[in-house]
Amino acid sequence: MSNTVILRVAVAIILLTHSVFAMFNNGINDFGNFYLNQIGFAPLGVPLAWAIKLSHVVCAVLLLLNKFVKPASVVTILILLMGIVLVHFKEGWFVVGGGRNGMEYNFLLICVLFVLYHSYLIVESS
Length: 126
Fold this sequence. Notes:
Elements: H1 5-24, H2 27-41, H3 45-65, H4 69-88, H5 104-125
């Protein structure tokens, strides 16, 4: 669906850069060890953190290929919602400026993924 190409590429870039950077700066292991394990996911914190980031990479690739956009969007929306619930909600709305580490970034990604998901529903029902 060509009218979604800009949104698909933009979300793919965001998911890839956020994930790949964390793979090389030990961010994934730190998130698993120092956050997920501490809030009750031990001993699965590190594998869960890797599963989350790898799912973002898979989603990004699928968005770029314009394949399986609906399931990729659903999985990623669920992960982003859990990120809001577990991490970002208590920090407030703003990522920067009026606060730090808030939920506005996840909210926008969820909205864009919802639009992508919905655009494929419209095509299938036509």
